[in-house]
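Lab meeting, item 3. Inverse folding demo.
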């Protein structure tokens, strides 16, 4: 199997990480000798924010206010990971990137540079569904309804334009997946649509 690229995008709490894991398992079963390269920026941002540097201080303030980190910082984070660690022979899985229109443009440019035509898997859930899910899971960055609402606001103002750009971009394959179903149903739908 030739190396595949999957980009998971959707509102906070939509189950991107879970679906990434399931699809990774599926790909490994189909291509037992293939390697997986998992590019996930959420945990890296949390680790970055926990440090004490000058830039980290500003990122920590944005995180405390429930804001969206600036695109330059996200681009710096994932571009360094790709440049330093990506060999190009792996199946590439991306979770949580891109999150702004400018970042989406640069991200698709980077994937084109690497000769990849990504499959964008948009886990489409309503704002209300996402809010209930985030409150229920109780993660550290889901501590209050106010913080959650801010995160969902920036999805609407910042991430949605990136999704619209990807939806119409000829350099990607875009799959709009109903994310308000069981984990198993969503996984089955993804497998059925990507046709690998």
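The presenter then showed the designed sequence:
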């Amino acid at each position: 199997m030739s190396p595949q690229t999957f980009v998971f995008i959707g509102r906070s709490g939509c189950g991107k990480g879970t679906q990434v894991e399931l699809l990774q398992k599926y790909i490994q079963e189909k291509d037992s000798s293939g390697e997986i390269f998992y590019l996930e920026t959420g945990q890296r941002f949390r680790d970055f924010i926990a440090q004490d540097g000058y830039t980290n201080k500003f990122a920590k303030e944005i995180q405390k206010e429930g804001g969206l980190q600036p695109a330059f910082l996200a681009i710096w984070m994932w571009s360094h990971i790709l440049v330093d660690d990506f060999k190009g022979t792996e199946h590439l899985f991306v979770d949580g990137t891109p999150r702004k229109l400018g970042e989406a443009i640069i991200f698709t440019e980077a994937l084109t540079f690497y000769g990849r035509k990504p499959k964008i898997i948009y886990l489409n859930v309503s704002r209300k569904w996402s809010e209930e899910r985030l409150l229920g899971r109780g993660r550290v960055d889901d501590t209050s309804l106010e913080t959650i609402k801010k995160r969902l606001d920036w999805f609407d103002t910042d991430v949605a334009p990136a999704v619209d750009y990807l939806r119409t971009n000829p350099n990607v394959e875009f799959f709009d997946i109903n994310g308000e179903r069981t984990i198993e149903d969503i996984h089955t739908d993804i497998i059925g649509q990507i046709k690998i």
